[in-house]
């Protein structure tokens, strides 16, 4: 997949970056780290510049996020769960990925849209529960742009600074992803345990 991503970006430049980021937001298995870090590297080898890459990448993030937000406004969780079970394997999605995004939004509510843009997998899916909750669209757009801009800036600038060694950033983001997954999983276990304990306590009153 990495070779395909690189070929698309080399052939189409800014349009390639924009298109890949839109797709990455809808299909989480496509790694934004490769797109953005290589985009940063391309600014050292082509006429592309950091501001241009950041602009099209952030626009792509917003377009992809709005599509999923819209999906959330017309589907309930049960329907999304059924679709994920039926078609998720074709998109590289698992039901637990959707549940993580749902629980992340329940925990942080609107702040989850901003924070979620910097959490692997969740960053793509967080728009769905935001749409289901009918979050104010202007607030959704603002928080999505801000969160995406931070994530995109870190990766694009890193790719620019590392130059030929841009792939080094992928190693560190793998570590970051693993830590993020552990934190999310731990949080969900704690929330579930607290919820269960609360229900048991209320039944005994």
From TrEMBL:
<keyword id="KW-0812">Transmembrane</keyword>
<comment type="similarity">
    <text>Belongs to the DedA family.</text>
</comment>
<feature type="domain" description="VTT">
    <location>
        <begin position="30"/>
        <end position="160"/>
    </location>
</feature>
<protein>
    <submittedName>
        <fullName>DedA family protein</fullName>
    </submittedName>
</protein>
<dbReference type="GO" id="GO:0005886">
    <property type="term" value="C:plasma membrane"/>
</dbReference>
<feature type="transmembrane region" description="Helical">
    <location>
        <begin position="12"/>
        <end position="30"/>
    </location>
</feature>
<feature type="transmembrane region" description="Helical">
    <location>
        <begin position="140"/>
        <end position="163"/>
    </location>
</feature>
<keyword id="KW-0472">Membrane</keyword>
<dbReference type="InterPro" id="IPR051311">
    <property type="entry name" value="DedA_domain"/>
</dbReference>
<feature type="transmembrane region" description="Helical">
    <location>
        <begin position="50"/>
        <end position="72"/>
    </location>
</feature>
<feature type="transmembrane region" description="Helical">
    <location>
        <begin position="175"/>
        <end position="195"/>
    </location>
</feature>
<keyword id="KW-1133">Transmembrane helix</keyword>
<dbReference type="InterPro" id="IPR032816">
    <property type="entry name" value="VTT_dom"/>
</dbReference>
<dbReference type="Pfam" id="PF09335">
    <property type="entry name" value="VTT_dom"/>
</dbReference>
<keyword id="KW-1003">Cell membrane</keyword>
